[in-house]
């Protein structure tokens, strides 16, 4: 029996959180396919034209003078209907969990050249397309209640129509889909099930991990976030934790590794490069404080409590796994420490609760993907 070819719309080489999302998707799809051999075809959405093979006229246009401008646009417009993209040879295409709903998401770099021109076409040919763990990303202080922009609504409806299955990883994403007439299931992010099958280390009750991003997140969103204030708060948290516990930095990117060294050069820093390295490095921890939402979600999948601190509605993804998620302006040192110590004090109870939720999420995903494929 020939392998099943599964196309993945993902992000490659940016931060390990994307790898954790994709790891969960791959495990779910493999289980839903009953253990059949799979050939994965990965396309980085930030380089959408890599959906075409090197010899494709659209790719060749990039080598022409001014190829990244008019020639590329003309070639793509004229030639994208040709059935020679890398996804045309796939048996299934999956958008791996990520923010897909944010202000003017229809203008993203992949919306037209990948989602409309290729994914829409292969879906029309009968190739199943799924959008798993779709998330929202809006300023925490100015989150949308519905999608009112006609162009945005049209893009979202088109994407929904192209997909046999769409799942939302947070309540806002679910509600925004509802505002355009779609009832999608709420399933926690696939990073929550990514640790399945990885051996857990013996728990070290003294080890606490800290994941630090300047300003507590990717963007300020014009919310006047005090980056220096968050840095000072985290210094206080680390100092207090260090009185009775061992603290180590958990870094998702080389830039975070350098930033952590500046925050406190005396502390060890972890920079795992693969999911296997990630789970081996973190599985013994008692708890964590995280600015990366996927750090909190993946740790929860190992039964490790944490406190997430961020700037936008990605916090709702963490809230969905029943882990404390604080807007940075509400994250005082006292509150962060209280939430973290409360979670760690529950020990086995917290671990069992999180692992049970991960099992429930796993079963729901496998059932939903299997039903959509059937």
Can you tell me about this structure?
44% of the residues are buried. The longest helix is centred in the last third of the chain and has 27 residues, at 347-373. The two termini are 18 Å apart. By secondary structure, the chain is α/β, with parallel strands linked by helices. The protein is 42% helix and 16% strand. It folds into 2 domains: 4-187, Rossmann fold; 207-356, Glycogen Phosphorylase B (Rossmann fold, 3-Layer(aba) Sandwich), CATH 3.40.50.2000. The chain has helices at 16-32, 57-60, 67-79, 111-124, 150-162, 171-179, 227-241, 254-263, 275-282, 293-301, 315-319, 333-345, 347-373, and strands at 4-10, 38-44, 92-95, 98-101, 129-136, 165-168, 207-211, 246-250, 269-270, 287-290, 306-310, 325-327. Strand 10 (287-290), helix 10 (293-301) and strand 11 (306-310) form a beta-alpha-beta unit. Strands 1, 2, 3, 4, 5 and 6 form a 6-stranded parallel beta sheet that branches. Strands 9-8-7-10-11-12 form a 6-stranded parallel beta sheet, with helices on both faces. It is built from 13 helices and 12 strands.
SSE layout and pairing:
Layout: E1 4-10, H1 16-32, E2 38-44, H2 57-60, H3 67-79, E3 92-95, E4 98-101, H4 111-124, E5 129-136, H5 150-162, E6 165-168, H6 171-179, E7 207-211, H7 227-241, E8 246-250, H8 254-263, E9 269-270, H9 275-282, E10 287-290, H10 293-301, E11 306-310, H11 315-319, E12 325-327, H12 333-345, H13 347-373
Parallel strand pairs: 1-2, 1-3, 3-5, 4-5, 5-6, 7-8, 7-10, 8-9, 10-11, 11-12
